[in-house]
Design goal:
Elements lengths: L19 H14 L4 H8 L5 H12 L10 H14 L3 H6 L6 H22 L4 H10 L8 H4 L16 H13 L3 H11 L2
The chain binds a DNA duplex (21 and 21 nucleotides) through helix 3, helix 6 and helix 9.
Amino acid sequence: MDKKPCKSQDVEVRKGPWTMEEDLILINYIANHGEGVWNSLAKAAGLKRTGKSCRLRWLNYLRPDVRRGNITSEEQLLIMELHAKWGNRWSKIAKHLPGRTDNEIKNYWRTRIQKHIKQAEVCSSQSHSELLEQASTSQVPCNTDMRETYPPSSFNHFNMEAFPGQSAMSMAVESYENYWSMEDLWSMQLLTGD
DNA sequence: AAGATGCCCAACCGCTATGTC
DNA sequence: AGACATAGCGGTTGGGCATCT
């Protein structure tokens, strides 16, 4: 894939965050030519990126059907259910969440859910009744050992909104609002598209 | 007020699977 | 059959931002 070392005559390969201009070039190119072979696409579009990088950017961010913003509690439940079934098969899980990417789900799992599983481990030393009481009052995120209660049927009594990821969530939404939206980009693409 | 710490997420890396010649 | 190219996947990292002390 990208295993070949860069030849001296090769153009310099850009890394790091994508610029708005690069996004537009990629969107434009795919809108006009479709998603062909990524390496050739990158070259043909004039992007100094690897095909791999272009593919990732497109799939995780630029595709028009990518849904961004909060993971709903329904999605949250589904993620947990599917993860219980398949483990870290993120792409497989993502296929069941339209508009969500494997990367997004993976990040979500690692930053939110896994954290709570760890917390649950710590809390597992506490008595069951104590934990139930805490869970019912939604004051403390610790639940009974989540790995045991993991089968989705056991989540009925589990108040997902008790997850204190709210601040992070609202933060994410806020930060997202500060970016130009995909709608902006697509409308720009329509304006500049040939 | 400012430095330290923690969290989130976009992007990269390395590996495997699959397709093509 | 096997060598090579490409796609796809999962793990990891680094930067930016928010919160804490």
